[in-house]
Amino acid sequence: MTASLTAAPRADQARIKWLVAPSSASWLEQANARPDLVLIDHAHCERKAAGVALQLMFRYPSDEGLGAALSPLAREELEHFELVLQLLQRRGIALKPLPAPGYGAQLTAAVRKGEPERMLDSFLVAGLIEARSHERMALLAAHSLEVALRDLYSELLTSEARHFGLYWLLCEARFGREATMARLQELAAVETQALTGFLTHLEDVRMHSVGVELGSSPV
Asked: pLDDT per position in the chain (219 positions), as tens?
């Protein structure tokens, strides 16, 4: 069965101003062809997202309010990990390591080394990953071929949107809107480049594997 992108998920994606290009129909078709692989990868993504929040808290212990903002986010990411893990267990699927796509590594490589630029970039990279996760979960919530998967992704959408919104607020409070927007545009281009290309092997499909529609920017 071939999936298609309908008006509803594209309208949802259009509200995600962080992203330069929407995900492609080919990515959705690949994800629906190997839902168990995407679920396993999703579990890893949720756990990694919790780790990123904790890492930032430890990196900037003197930043007033950062721990209070990121601690609830880390807990929620772990709750999401548990939800995905429970679904995997019900499906009789073990949580196994998977080769990661180059997406996260390419974004991390774009983070500047010196402070305070490193803080700004780290927040924006975390927010971009959350934004892309939200966008793709919206597609899966609308188009997954199984009710259980549609229900899972639908349940996670609101909190995922809140997560990338939180990273935006952290940036704007510390660096101002103009500086935040300028750097976001640069990193958003890197994010799109990291997802540009074609998947050669279906076994490599992941939540953040390649697949975007270039020249079809959100409005």
From this structure: 333 343 333 333 334 578 999 999 999 999 999 999 999 999 999 999 999 999 999 999 999 899 999 999 999 999 999 999 999 999 999 999 999 899 999 999 999 999 999 999 999 999 999 999 999 999 999 999 999 999 999 999 988 888 999 999 999 999 999 999 999 999 999 999 999 999 999 999 999 999 999 875 543
Amino acid at 207: M
For the entire predicted model, the pTM comes to 0.90
- What the block records as the tokens of 122 is 């780290």
Which residues, including other chains, have CB under 8 Å from residue 58's CB and lie 6 or more apart? Answer: none
Residues 6 or more apart whose CB falls under 8 angstroms from that of 183 comprise: 120, 121, 124
Q: SS3 for 111?
A: coil
DSSP 22: P
